[in-house]
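Go through this one:
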Amino acid sequence: MSLKTVLILLGLALATIFALVCVLLTRERSPRSCQQLPLEQEDVEDGQSLVFADLTAEEMSQVVRYLQGHLGVPLVDASRAKPSDNCIASVDLQVPAKAEVLRFLDAGGARPAREALAVLYFGKQAEPNISEYVVGPLPTPAYHRDVTEHKYGGKLPYHRRPVTGREYLDINALIQRELKKAPRFLTACCESDGTNLATLTTAPRGFQSGDRVTWFVLFHNVAGTGYFVSPVGLEVLVDHGDLDVSRWQLLQVFYNGRYFASTGDLEQEFVAGALEVVRLKQPRADSVLGSMKPRRPPGSPGPVQFEPQGPRYRVRNNRITFQGWSIAFGMNPNTGPRLFDIRYRGERIVYELSLQEALALYGSNCPGGMSTRYLDGSFGIGRFAYELVRGLDCPYTATYVDRHYLVETDTPKTNQNSLCIFEHDSSLPLRRHFSDSQSFYYGGLRKNTLVIRAISTLINYDYIWDFMFHSSGAVEVRVHATGYISSSFFYGRGTDYGNRVGPHTLGTMHLHHIHYKVDLDVDGQLNSLETQDMEYEFVKDPWSRQNTIERPYLRRERLEREDEAAFPINVPMPRYLSFVSPNLNKWEHPRSYRIQIISFAGKHLPTNSSMERSISWGRYQLAVTRRKEEEPTSTSIYNQNDPWTPTVTFADFINNETITNEDLVAWITVGFLHVPHAEDIPNTVTVGNGVGFFLRPYNYFNEDPSVDSPDSVYFSSEQDAGACGANPLACLSSAATCAPHLPPFHFGGFLNL
């Protein structure tokens, strides 16, 4: 072999070695992929939670097919149905009776029959009405029974039905026909022929039972922006109560402080020069008030939360487990998120925790704004919980769950990824202490929380619904409001009802009141209600009789009847209020859970209002009643369109029955007054716009249960705090040296619109 060949081979060998070293060094610098470690087996999933599970899409379809074949009347798909047709309005789970469920869960009884609740609109009958049927058993229905009279004491009047999408389309067609009667006015006021104006419904619809008369507010509609903050000053009143759509009519027109009998009269006044017109230019997408498009290019990415060894919670079917917690979750298409059978360390704390209603009540000097009292359950809090945006609405690596619903159609729809579950590091100690006397040590625990979240878009507002579970045994419920404000056209003394936030835009004052049902079962079903608060007593100093001292003492009281346990909104209530068990803890105190409300509610509607009884739950920040199967909800989707004769009146639940050692329910109202201001443009922020409540253990345990958390940290001055064996925080530098697997970003939330 020649010397030249040897040198060439040696050179190739050195190059290969150099390349391998570079690869190895590069691999050493690149973080490995995070690997999920197996979770400790907390319990065995036995399918019991499925008794609360939302209907599957196939079950909904089976119910529809059964009803189409067994009711003996023609049924039109609700997406096409006229008011004079019969249609299936919705299909949802019929939650079994609590006694049946507990026999199954706790006593080895039979599994309750799986059933659906179907709501039908019968417009093609001599007496049009709303009827509700229980259909079962699923998945193969064989029977149905009409439960309307049993639930409501009689047939439900047809005018109480929520407005369907098809009805809104027909109303918009009527409005467009009427706008064509004022072409010169529309050109002058809005640079429009009417087709590029958006209409916004108000509610309720009239002044007395039987009315179906609605004010619609018109806005400039610019693609890609929120039209809600671009009113043009024009509002129309439409009567759409007749079953024959051709008989619907426009009753009144409002423009810039004046009322007219028709759009023709409006046009005539304009042509005669007798109308003061505010000439608005068609807004551009890049300068309109409601644009949320970024104004700067993206910067460097912010912090990303990830689990270096995988999620520490489990999601199986409709059940979540996490460090001692077990929760069955679901979504009602009308009222939104609902949780059942909430247990901690194997003990049931809450049987049902569910959203009931969201009220938005407005003030304005325009007719649409001043008459608006939205009851969002009638629009569909759960139905309009759309897909969540990964990395913004929830952490990128959260678990996302699809929800199915059947409303106003015969075909089930799916809101993909519309509920998320994640563990949240709040970057705040749950508890800690640094000892600087006697002995030197540090002990603490991070505040890591399991979060279940959904977000509902209800016309202009977006509500973020959070249910959080802490390692201290506490449950936290919170709602944040964001989205767009609703607005009126600014004229006259508009600032008596809000703030001017644009050239012609009045941000109208309003309140948000949210209602929840909390069926607590604290160490069993039989509970009582106890309050505790502080008082001062003036006593002689035992060691110095010539002096006195103001000594605080604890005043305890057991409330015995429902009337005592109904606490009016905005009136101070006892600082400690607890559901107490007859059983004692180690220290001989009743095992209890405390209700702690965080709220800044506005003023409730005056009780002499003709529609107040329909929202009478809003009278109380807290009301505790005996649980009754015939009082499952505090309101009804039918209250919105007939608030003057409400289908469900919460105030009637409170009838001074005894609440000592009974199965009790806490009904909680939280909320806030919102006076829109310049910083609500383009969007309301969540900061400061969050309210809720806590359910906190109070002598339920013998000590703080979080002491058993594997996340606890303790080290003393005599230990090496940097040693992994002494301090788990010292292990992070190696445990977290991995790259999270982030799935490709995908969003399909526009598919069902």
In short: Residues 350 and 594 are 12 Å apart (CA to CA). The chain has three domains: 48-160, 165-272, 313-426+439-698. The first helix runs from residue 3 to 29.
